[in-house]
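Review form for a predicted model. The reviewer records the input and the model, then writes brief findings.
Reviewer: anonymous (R2)
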Amino acid sequence: MHGPFDLIFEASGFSPLAFQAAEALGKNGVLVLSSVTGGDKTVEVKADTINQGFVLGNKVMVGTVNASRADFVSGVNDLVKAEAFFPGWLNKLLTTPVHGLQNYEEMLRHLTQDKEAIKVFVEVAQDM
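Model under review:
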């Protein structure tokens, strides 16, 4: 009845809803899964439709969980190690920085018009 949506934040803990959300996501949309489901529920999903929608629609599905400072430090360490093993990979992926959330119009212009942009990202805060 509604949609497609640019951003869906799913937090119900009801796994079938996550797959319904994947189908309701719009082009270039982001689906954030923030709940952990328990049990061993099985549901039938339109796997090909969801897969094609994500690939051809440049959609993203990401999981998130509350984490401690140690978890974030570990993630930064992993990125540093990856850069040491594969120098320059991250700069080749993150091609188009936008400085500050206030520049959201610039971000949208890059996302919709910049054919050279691989990944547009917003720098929320400057390095200290």
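Findings: The CA atoms of residues 51 and 116 lie 25 Å apart.
Further findings: DSSP finds five helices and five strands in the chain.
Recommendation: see findings above.
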